[in-house]
């Protein structure tokens, strides 16, 4: 089992991403509103210039969504494909990040057989 963590900056992709997960029978996502360090540190004098440039380039980006999904190892490639399909690819700047962590113990989660 893996914990898949997706930090989605392109909030306009959220609905389509959830639809894509559903179409692929990927379930069990928990979604939190979140924001990054740069948004939190916007009061610091040294960062004002950097933040002002960021606000000019992407004024609407004030928050993101963090998605947590427990998934069997065989489902992880499908999750990654879904995210890259809907977002246009995480390699593009300010789209988001995705990483996995091993789950050593899990209770309250039933794996559905496909």
UniProtKB/TrEMBL annotation:
This chain belongs to the protein called Nitrogen regulatory protein P-II
Per the record, the domain of life is: Bacteria
Question: What are the leading ranks of the lineage?
Answer: Bacteria, Bacillati, Bacillota, Clostridia, Lachnospirales
The cross-references to InterPro entries, in alphabetical order and at most eight, read:
N-reg_PII-like_a/b
């Amino acid at each position: 089992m893996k914990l898949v963590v997706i930090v989605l900056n392109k909030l306009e992709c959220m609905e389509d991403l959830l639809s894509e997960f559903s179409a692929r029978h990927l379930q069990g996502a928990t979604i939190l509103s979140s924001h990054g360090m740069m948004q939190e540190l916007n009061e610091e004098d040294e960062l004002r210039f950097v933040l002002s440039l960021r606000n000019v380039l992407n004024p609407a980006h004030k928050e993101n969504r963090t998605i947590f999904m427990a998934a069997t190892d065989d489902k992880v490639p499908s999750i990654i494909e879904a995210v890259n399909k809907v977002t246009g690819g995480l390699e593009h700047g300010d789209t988001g990040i995705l990483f996995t962590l091993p789950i050593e113990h899990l209770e309250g989660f039933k794996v559905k057989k496909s």
